[in-house]
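Duplicate of #3305? Posting structure anyway:
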């Protein structure tokens, strides 16, 4: 989806491969967490399949260290009900390994999120934006 990638590259100063990978990682994480609800996002915003595939590919290549960190954060999130800052931190930690492979530091996850959420709201309305927020918390 060229429009979203152009938005990310212009607002964050990353290259198109980094933008595609970062957005793909976020979409793939949302798909994994939302299950069947994720179809509401793809129905509202067609053309995301390529980005989702790229994110899935990057996520499957994670090293054991990021997986272990994500797993630990996931356990903490589960213990706290996945709510609040710990839940959000767990979601962000699980994306950090993929972002590192793209040559981006973990802090970029928090910069990608508002850009992607804004796009989701513009193209899919509050329902789509709220689903993405739910997935990344």
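Output from current build:
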């Amino acid at each position: 989806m060229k429009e979203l990638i152009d938005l990310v590259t212009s607002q964050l100063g990353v290259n198109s491969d980094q933008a595609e990978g970062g957005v793909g990682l976020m979409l793939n994480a949302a798909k994994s967490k939302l299950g069947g609800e994720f179809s509401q996002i793809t129905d509202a915003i067609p053309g995301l399949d390529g980005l989702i595939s790229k994110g899935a590919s990057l996520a499957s290549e994670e090293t054991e260290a990021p997986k272990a960190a994500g797993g630990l954060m996931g356990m903490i999130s589960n213990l706290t009900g996945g709510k609040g800052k710990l839940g959000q931190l767990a979601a962000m930690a699980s994306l950090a390994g993929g972002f590192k492979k793209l040559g981006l530091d973990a802090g970029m996850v928090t910069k990608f999120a508002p850009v992607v959420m804004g796009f989701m709201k513009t193209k899919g309305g509050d329902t789509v934006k709220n689903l993405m927020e739910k997935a990344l918390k």
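Confirmed duplicate; merging threads. The helical segments are 2-12, 16-34, 39-44, 49-60, 64-79, 84-101, 108-135. The chain has a mean pLDDT of 82.
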